[in-house]
Structures are given as structure tokens and as C-alpha cells.
Amino acid sequence: QVQLVESGGGLVPPGGSLRLSCTASGLVFTICLVRWYRQGPENQRELVAQVSISGTTHYGDFARGRFNIFRGDDRNTVYLQMNNLEYEDTSVYLCNAICHGDYWGQGTQVTVSS
Asked: What rounded mean pLDDT belongs to the chain?
């Protein structure tokens, strides 16, 4: 059974940092395209960042220069390092893996507030 579990969300002041984790079980994560999305109040999803099988990364315009997506050494985790967070980054962040199927985690809440 495939499972993606996000963690690392929380409350952070503007300008702060968080590192989100997406840990996979039941699949070989290294052969997956992995994406982080964030979900708006009307459940619309916005691509934050993605990392391909080869390691190529792509970022949403708002994330470029502030966020970094990378794979962990354990091969089962993908991280999203978020720096210089802004109020507008408040959202639920979801992990998505595409590899012989399309899998989603439940999300982790990020709240940027003073």
C-alpha cells in the first residue's frame, strides 16, 4: 500500500523558515516525479516545486529563490526548504508523487503569522 506522509508544518513569523518532509512507503520514491503543491481556500492547488527522477527542479514563480526542493539521502524522503516566508505562503502543503500511479499525501499546514 502506497502512503505519502507530510510533516514539518507549523506556525512561523514572517521571514522565518520551515523544512517540510514528504516520506514515502510502498513505492520506490527515487523513480517518482515528486511535487509539492499548496492548496488555497477554495481547494485550488498551486504548484510550489517539483523534482524529477534525474534531479531537475522546477519552481513556481513565487517560490523561486526562496524555496528549495531536494531528495533525502534515505531515498524515501523529499524535502521542501522554505525560507523568507511571507503571509501569503500560509496554506496546506501537499506532496504528490507520480510513478506508475498518482499519489497524494494528506498535507501539512503552514501558517505564517506574527
From this structure: 95
Q: Give strand ranges (E) for 2-107.
A: 3-7, 10-12, 18-25, 33-39, 45-51, 57-59, 67-71, 77-82, 91-98, 102-104
Nearest C-alpha neighbor of 96 from the set 59, 48, 41: 48
Q: Which residues contact residue 8 at a Cβ distance below 8 angstroms, ignoring those fewer than 6 apart?
A: 18, 19, 20, 21, 108
- 3 state DSSP class of 94: strand
What is the rounded average pLDDT of the residues 15-28? 95
Identify residue 55 by its one-letter amino acid code.
G
**In this predicted structure, what is the pLDDT of residue 42?**
86
Q: How far apart are CA 91 and CA 113, in angstroms?
A: 12
